[in-house]
Amino acid sequence: MNEQLQMMMDNVKQFCEQAIKDQAITFEREGIPESMFQAFRDQGFIGANLPSSMGGAELDRQGYDAILFRLAEYSPSAAFYVYMNNSIILPLLSGAGMNDLAGEVMKGTVRIGLASSNLLEGTGDHDPFLSTAVFPSEHMIKVENGKVLLVRGKFQHADRKSLGLRGLGVGMNSFEAEESKELGRKESLEKLMLGSSWEQSAIFLGLSKGALDKAIEYTKVRKTFNYPLKDYSPVAFRLSELMSDLEFMTHFLFSEEGEQKGLMLKARSSDFSRKATKHALQYHGGYGYLEDFGVEKFYRDSVALSSLMFRPEGDKKALAESIYGSKSGYL
Amino acid sequence: MDFDLPADLEEYRKQVREFSLREFTEETAMMHDIKEKYPDELRKKALESGIIDFSNPWKTMLGIEEMCRVDPGLGISATVPYFGAEILMLHGSDYLREKYLSKVATGKMMMGLGVTEPGGGSDVAGLKTSAKKSGNHYILNGSKMFITNGGIADFFVTLVRTAEPDVPSKRHRGLSVLVVERNFKGFSSNKLTGKLGVRATNTAELIFDNVEIPQENLVGEEGKGFYYVMEFFNISRVFVAAQSVGIAQGALDMVTEYLSSQEKKGVPVSEELKFKLSEMATRTEASRLLMYKAASYLFNYKPNPTITSMAKGYASETAAFCAETAMEVTGMTGLSTKLERFFRDSKIMEIWEGTSEVEKIVISRMMMRGDSSE
Predict the structure, then answer these.
(1) Which chain A residue has its CA at the smallest distance from B259's CA?
(2) Which of B32, B195, B196 to mutate to test the interface with A (most CBs of A within 10 A)?
(3) How many CB pairs under 8 A join A and B?
(4) Interface contact A221, partner B, CB < 8 A
(5) Residue A143 and residue B321: Cα distance in Å, rounded?
(6) Three-class SS state of B3
């Protein structure tokens, strides 16, 4: 990791320690507050990867991933919010020539939710749908009949807590559409999803680190049968193994390039995040099952994000085809 | 060797299935999950319908499995008001059985088991709650953590220290079991909220502040408490295996239905996904067979702790595996249906009544001692 990237990592970490760490549980319970969205803009997180013509900071891929990685360590919801705006919503608006609206989103005067029920495979046609909504949101991006639509209307938040990304009010929310505008074909959205494998990996790895760090701290102080948990070989060896895997993948994230390698990392990091967070929770015992300890959210988010961002069929097929160089894995 | 259950048990299984499908509606399950509310009305209905039958442990086990297959939170809630009853059945005096157990059996009372302590977890013998003898009473001080039914049960079968161990390294000595009523002066409880799953069940911390316990509330003999509780875990772990098999089967049902409906709609289902279904089905069936074997030993009065730990450990990991795999296979559908609740509910199986690590310790210890699993 070069000096500039390390500085970026340190700066975002400092922000997270000061602004998110003590609030992370509240984010889960009550949603991310407006002041935090403002703080993301003030920090330059929103638009970090976008061209200056859009008001962005033109950070390179690694710099942007450093932001997502660090945010996910503390709050996967916060990381997904930044990703969703920078990697999906703003490029879609820009691609459709809606630069004024994109500017409003950058300033925070307009918020746009992302309805995910029919964006990806294995979705069915749920209505009301699962939406990544930053409440209150008057706009929603959704896919209908092969088109990506920007819909304006009335949003109603569900009282049911979703599995993951609770800080963003993800849930079976309903949205009464008043008007809609086409932003492009569904393929344009798929391309953005596919093209942001590195960013998605950064979130998977960041949240894994958040969970594993908690497990390591906890197993240092929690004693059973007169010894701290870290003294037991199954615990120490497993956590060390997971930390090693994390280190390898993090190195890969910040040093490699290319679509195929991005897909490789996305497949590995998505799988890894489920495994790492599960063990992190397990080593907290019953306390890990409680929201207060802040580790169960990583477990929930790892699975919810896998469902939202990783296409078990499509992404694996794309990876297989890039490796074979021909059509494969379709039976 | 006959792998079929007797006809009366198959009929019973069918009755529980019908009851669960009728009563555990998605609306009911979701409401109790969201509000973290114990479904007392379902407890009563289950009892009145006659499907709760603790006179036959095979029925108990199958009932738990079938209910958890439809909804784990509601299924566990409906079958857990009797949690710890076996300790009173096996070791309680006639007075205790009459005063407490008979009322539990008729639904007039609910009970709980107080073993785990804050900071204690798997280390049962390291407990700190103490009961000092004072005349014809014990004076109880301390606390218990993660107690199922903790905020709603009328009394708790509670493991406490009544004497220091005669040998310091033998910490399991000097422990006894007392029946502690909620309405005893000095007793209080704090409901634990914000659980990842099984949110319909009631979980609480119990606090004992100079609680006076009548001497007659001692269960069995003083100093034998650890053995009573370990004996109970041999029983309850079979029932946790049943909860786990139910969850695994429920997740498997949903994935099977999902993939079948995809094919019917003309959406190609890859071999990769079908293999995942096969693995879920195989692991679920293997868990069920291990559970049957553990139950067979236990219910024929020759408990086998090795097989019991294998059954509980493997079934609980299978429940988590199946729920997670189901989420992976169904993608957004899983995220927006009751499957996500199964996923959240499944994880506790690997933690309560002995973590997966504890089960592995038991198995390896017994194997290395030369105690065969057969």
Answers:
(1) A122
(2) B196
(3) 123
(4) no
(5) 32
(6) coil
Which pLDDT does position B54 carry in this prediction?
Answer: 79
- Judge if A180 and A212 occupy the same domain: no
Question: Is B306 part of any domain?
Answer: yes
In chain B, how many domains are there? Answer: 3
Contacts 24+ apart (CB under 8 A), B9-15: B9/B58, B9/B59, B9/B62, B12/B51, B12/B53, B12/B59, B12/B62, B12/B63, B13/B62, B13/B66, B15/B51
pLDDT by residue (tens digit) across A75-96? 999 999 999 999 999 999 999 9
ipTM here: 0.93
Q: What is the pLDDT along chain B (374 residues), one digit of tens a residue?
A: 788 899 999 999 999 999 999 999 999 999 999 999 999 999 999 999 988 887 899 999 999 999 999 999 999 999 999 999 999 999 999 999 999 999 998 899 999 999 999 987 778 888 999 999 999 999 999 999 999 999 999 999 999 999 999 888 888 899 999 999 999 999 999 999 999 999 999 999 999 999 999 999 999 999 999 999 999 999 999 999 999 999 999 999 999 999 999 999 998 899 999 999 999 999 999 999 999 999 999 999 999 999 999 999 999 999 999 999 999 999 888 888 899 999 999 999 999 999 999 999 999 999 999 875 55
Per-window interface: A 50-69 vs B, CB < 8 A: none
Contact A116, A132 (CB under 8 A): yes
Q: Which residue of B has its CA nearest to A300?
A: B344
Q: Is residue B164 part of a domain?
A: yes
Question: How many angstroms separate the CA of residue B9 from the nearest CA in chain A?
Answer: 34
> Which residues on neighbouring strands pair with residue B155, listed in sequence order?
B111, B181
Domain total in chain A: 2
C-alpha of A122 from chain center: 19
Residue-wise DSSP of A211-254: HHHHHHHHHHH-EETTEEGGGSHHHHHHHHHHHHHHHHHHHHHH
**Domain end (from A171, A190, A209):** A190
Whether residue A280 sits in one domain with residue A168: no
Same domain (yes/no): A201, A305: yes
A172 contact residues in B (CB cutoff 8 A): 336
Instruction: Determine the structural domain holding residue A103 and report its residue range.
Output: 3-190
Which residues between 106 and 125 in chain A have a beta carbon less than 8 angstroms from any beta carbon of chain B?
A: 116-117, 120-124
Residue A266 CB: number of other CB atoms within 10 A? Answer: 26
Q: How many CB atoms lie within 10 A of CB A287?
A: 20
Instruction: List pLDDT tens digits, range A150-191.
Output: 988 887 777 667 888 898 888 777 777 888 999 999 888 888
**Interface touch B336/A286, C-beta < 8 Å:** no
Considering the domain architecture, whether residues A16 and A122 belong to the same structural domain is answered as: yes
Residues of B serving a catalytic function are: 353
Candidates A132, A163, A277: best to mutate against B (most CBs of B within 10 A) is A163
Domain presence at residue B150:
yes
CB contact under 8 A, B330 and A122: yes
Q: What is the pLDDT of residue B372?
A: 58
| A286–B116 CB contact, under 8 Å | yes
